[in-house]
Amino acid sequence: MNELPAFINQFETSIDGIPPGTVSGETQLTSLAVWDSLALLSVLAMADMEYGVTLTGGEVRECKTVADIYQLILSKKK
Question: pTM for this structure?
Fold first, then answer.
């Protein structure tokens, strides 16, 4: 994973109810109507399956934007 747009596409695909092309890196997670515990679990699964990174719910809850999650995954891949 080396590009934010590819991550955003994967993020949109992983969470039910997010239309493709509607999310950016600056999108506030709390602004997404579908951002709930199931969406958080979907992000945890995506990080593990697609990027080989284990995140915790607490780590993701600290993220404010989609780009924050991307940066968290990048930091774990080092």
Answer: 0.93
